[in-house]
Amino acid sequence: MLHAESLTGLQRFAGRTLGVATMHGKEQVIGPALMARLPLAGFTAIPDLDTDRFGAFSGEVARGTDPRTACEHKARHGARAVGMDLVIASEGSFGPYPPSPFITCDEEWLVLVDLRDDRTWVHRHVSLETVFGGEECRTLDAVLAFAARMKFPDHGLVLKTREHWLPGDRVFKGIRDAGHLREVAGRMIAEQGSVWAETDLRAMANPTRMRVIGETAARFATELAMTCPRCGTIHFAVAQALWGLPCAQCGFPTQGTRAYLRECRECGHRTEEARADGRTVEDPQYCELCNP
Questions:
Q1: How far apart are CA 233 and CA 181, in angstroms?
Q2: 94-105 pLDDT, tens per residue?
Q3: Could you tell me the pLDDT band of residue 5, with boundaries at 50, 70 and 90?
């Protein structure tokens, strides 16, 4: 019989093995991050799992849902595949950073599913650290120049017939060898006049993204390990950023974050938490009175 305490506090994880629903090596950074904060017995990548069925960066499979939903589908699919009851999955998206659309961002989601009581926990992290891009190239020199900008060969490349994949198009993934890049790109340009080159955004081929996933997992683990001071439930997580950081010059409330609100989804208990960086005032350049 499961005791109530084991389903609320960190005892929920004691002695259990975490399954990581991935085919791209993400267990290397997700597993250790959660092991560092939770009393898990271990972690393992779920073998022979096709997570590309939920969407592929290179376009052959469109993601049919929002990233958070796709991430949960991955986790539950992994759990069903091997009969595990504690499984985590990751899903990423790349695109313009909303506050500054000329900057690219990486939005990473993690969803942890516990089928013992069918609970899920979710974490989202946005990073401006990316190696991401794509370009139509009509010469081999253009391909090599693009590769250099994309930190090849540390970061892999994908070569495709065209930017937006169509059935029958050729796709070559995971290119991290200069000779292979020259051979495939040269052949495609000779045959069709151009080639679409893009970064391989799968985690095992993109070290920058893998680092961001690791950072996301570490943040998630910290939030999971925070328990509600009232009822002891895990994931006493930040639910809202509270604006109103006062201007250093005039004291007027700005749009800057002054504190964070933590909330327990079990009992509803809330507490305010100061900024981790200790800042108590905002630069006057961001004040609507001092710099209208």
A1: 52
A2: 999 988 889 999
A3: low
- Rounded to 10 degrees, the C-alpha dihedral 134/70/176/170 comes to -70
Beta strands in the chain, from DSSP E residues, in sequence order: 17-21, 42-45, 86-97, 100-114, 119-127, 134-137, 157-160, 171-175, 195-199, 237-243, 257-263, 270-274
Please check whether residue 172 lies inside any domain of the structure: yes
- In which residue are the tokens 């909303």 written? 98
Interhelix angle for 207-225 vs 27-35, to 10°?
20
Longest dimension (CA), the chain: 68
Pairing of strands 42-45, 270-274: unpaired
17 — pLDDT class (breaks 50, 70, 90): very high
How far apart, in whole angstroms, are the C-alpha atoms of residue 146 and residue 179?
Answer: 15
Kindly state whether residue 56 falls inside one of the protein's structural domains.
yes
pLDDT by residue (tens digit) across 75-122? 999 999 999 999 999 999 999 998 888 999 999 999 999 999 999 999
Say how many domains are in the chain.
Answer: 3
Residues 165, 276, single domain; the answer is no
Instruction: For residue 123, give both structure tokens.
Output: 């974490």
| Entry pTM | 0.91
